[in-house]
Structure formats: structure tokens, C-alpha cells
Structure of Purine nucleoside phosphorylase:
Amino acid sequence: MREILRAEALAGVPHGFLTGLGHEGEPDPARIVAGAELVRVKQVHSPRVVFVEAPFAGDELPEADALVTDRPGLVLGVVTADCAPVLLADRAAGVVGAAHAGWRGAFGGVLEATVAAMIEAGATRETIVAAIGPTIAQASYEVDQAFHDRLVEHDADNAALFAPGAPAHHQFDLPAYVRRRLESAGIGRIDDLARDTYTEEQLFHSFRRATHRGEPTYGRQFSLIACPT
């Protein structure tokens, strides 16, 4: 059975960052809330957010990279394998969100869009808390010069997120970039579990690690959240 990691920022909110260990099918939402139903989307590295009122009908999932709800009985889920899973909640308002934030989604504004959708559902910016789950760490994430230049040209402050790497390459701090984008959204608290999907191979799937080793790249881990009751 997959291990469940919790975040202090989300204490009192049903949630969990699952490891990649155990059965590889969809997780049992009852491990988060008894009798709840799991809701997912087709993730496409976009800034799109969907507000969930009920489980989606049919087999076709909407294309999006974040979900928000204020409805009890639903467990929101995202899958990752190096990108950052971000779970968010406003306990008082009873609104939660889950976002898949790779660099493309974060760059495109998926986190700010998630916060905006939560506010539209009744949350307050300053009382939203967020937790960044297992993601690839800076020491494990080499990028090329074009990647570096794109982010720095967009915002010169992003230069601080890169460390020297191999010639014409850099080490990118994705968790810090995600935190920066959450901070720009003005939310109240941000916690980072600081777990590296690439190096902690006994616990997490890593798309980049599998690619480097020529292994199958289909492995993912789930991050789940539901409204507090």
C-alpha cells in the first residue's frame, strides 16, 4: 500500500501526497475521506482550472491542470512524476484546490488561476494555505541555456533560481519557482515537503530518472485533497 505524506500547513484538511509504492492503479479515495469519490482531469501542462461540483460524467475527462471545489464528498487528485503537486485549502471557507505545476504550467499561471478560482468559490486570499509535494529538486534538474534565458527574460528575479551546471546548462530550482508564483498570488502560508522525486527512488517515480536510465516512464504518484468537514 502506498505511503501517505502529510503537510503541516494542511493540518485538519483531509489530504495526502502518496508515494509511488504499492498498487499502481488509482488510489482509494476512502483513504482520504470515507465514502468520497475521486475526481481527476486530463493533465496537459496548461494553466486551466476546473471547478468541480460533482464527479465528471462519462469516460472523457476535461483537459486542465488544476481542480477546485467546495463540495464535501469529493477527493480532488493530480498525478506527478517530477512536476510539483500543490494542494491548497481555505479551512474557514471550506474550499480546496489541487494543482499540477510543472515549469510550463507554473510559467503559464496555473497556480495564480487556482487561487483565483478558490477566491471565486468563497475563499480569502490571505487565509489560503498551500503545500508543495514531492518534486524534482534543483540538484537533479539540469536545463539548457534556452530554458534559463526564457525564464530570466520574463522576470529578471528568476535568475536566482538557477545554479551553475555543465557548460551551457544550469540547475533549476522548480520548488522555489513554484513557491515564488504562490507568493505572487498573495496566499497566507506555503509549506514545502522538500522531497526529491529523482533521488528518492525507493519512494517516488521520476520521469527524468526513468528517461536517463532508459526505463518505462509511465509511473506516477497521486496527490489528493478534500474539503474539511
About this structure: The mean pLDDT is 95. The longest strand covers residues 74-80. DSSP finds five helices and 14 strands in the chain.
